[in-house]
Amino acid sequence: MTVRKLDADGDLALGPKKFLATDSAEEAAQNINTRLKFFLGEWFLDTTDGTDWFGSVLGKGSVLASRESVIRRRILLTPGCAGMTSFSLTTDINTRQLTVTASIVSTSGDSAEINYVQAIV
């Protein structure tokens, strides 16, 4: 699969060197971040795909084990991700943010760091 690079603002990178190397750790990390941003039911062609942020993760009364399970599964089922060597999920009530930190191994054997922040509304 060909994946276009994203710039620091999350927009498509244009110009030379605009594609990521196939099966690289950088490609897998970008795909994971994109999949985590994708909300369940957001895409009209497949309403069963996406991260269940409102129901299972940020929903009232959701337990930590359930939150971790949903996010771990989302990461591990990302194409290009062969495994995960570390995982951390933290919430900060003061800043109203949930932070996902993980180290993944791509199918090429390289590793990458994931740092994803989701606002808690």
Question: What is the helix content?
Answer: 25-40%
Low-confidence stretches: none
Q: What is the CATH top level name?
A: Alpha Beta
User: Spatial order of the strands in the main sheet?
Assistant: 1-2-3
* Sheet having the most strands: 3 strands, antiparallel
Tell me what you see in this structure.
The chain has helices at residues 25-37, 53-57, 64-76; strands at 81-92, 97-106, 111-119. By secondary structure, it is α+β, with helices and mostly antiparallel strands. The chain has a 3-stranded antiparallel β-sheet with strand order 1-2-3, with helices on one face. The radius of gyration is 15 Å and the shape is globular.
Summarize this entry quickly.
The protein has 121 residues and is an alpha+beta fold. The protein has helices at 25-37, 53-57, 64-76; strands spanning 81-92, 97-106, 111-119. The longest helix is centred in the first third of the chain and has 13 residues, at 25-37.
Provide key terms for this protein:
3-stranded antiparallel beta sheet, 121 residues, Nuclear Transport Factor 2, Chain: A, single chain, 3 helices
